[in-house]
Write a sequence for this structure.
């Protein structure tokens, strides 16, 4: 199992990622403002289910790859480093994400859950992010699957906790981010710095 330091480090990265405005945040804010907190919480359950799908796919995929292909860990970490550098560049050059959620039609509980699930599953960056981040926190000499699942659960727990707070305070969060464009610029630079640092660490560390 991952050490406490590894889990805390991964949790810090997961926290930085979830605090950066993205599709999930925009959808949850818009849904909560339009239809109320209950609708936001149901949608969040769908988003969480999407994280579980991606976590399991990444965990079993990484495990199978490391056992089946020689030097797969090196290939995976270099690919992950390249992707993280690309994300860092995108964070710097992007104009920021507009957080003026439009009116969304009201839906029943089942559809709210499914729409939250699809919002997450149809975001390919989530899958790529799992594949880019998980390997650098995993010791390939240990229980790869167990480590992957544990780290994935940490990411889901952090994301659900933060997004639940966002749903609860949706109106205030939207107003804060919309009226403070400088805050979004700070977020972009902070996120780019974190991602670039992770990429450099991932690419330069010795094979374990």
């Amino acid at each position: 199992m991952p050490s406490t330091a590894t889990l805390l480090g991964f949790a810090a990265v997961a926290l930085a990622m979830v605090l950066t405005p993205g599709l999930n945040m925009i959808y949850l804010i818009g849904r909560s403002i339009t239809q109320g907190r209950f609708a936001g919480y149901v949608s969040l359950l769908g988003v969480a289910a999407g994280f579980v799908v991606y976590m399991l796919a990444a965990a079993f995929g990484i495990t199978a790859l490391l056992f089946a292909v020689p030097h797969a860990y090196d290939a995976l970490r270099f690919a992950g480093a390249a992707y993280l550098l690309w994300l860092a560049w995108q964070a710097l050059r992007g104009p920021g994400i507009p957080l003026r959620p439009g009116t969304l039609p009201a839906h029943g509980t089942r559809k709210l859950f499914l729409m939250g699930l699809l919002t997450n599953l149809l975001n390919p960056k989530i899958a790529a992010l799992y594949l880019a981040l998980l390997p650098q926190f995993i010791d390939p000499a240990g229980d790869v699957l167990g480590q992957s699942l544990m780290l994935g659960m940490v990411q889901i727990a952090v994301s659900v906790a933060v997004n639940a707070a966002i749903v609860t305070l949706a109106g205030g969060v939207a107003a804060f981010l919309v009226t403070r464009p400088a805050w979004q610029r700070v977020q972009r630079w902070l996120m780019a710095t974190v991602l670039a640092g992770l990429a450099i660490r991932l690419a330069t560390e010795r094979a374990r």
Observations:
- The mean pLDDT is 76.
- The first helix runs from residue 4 to 18.
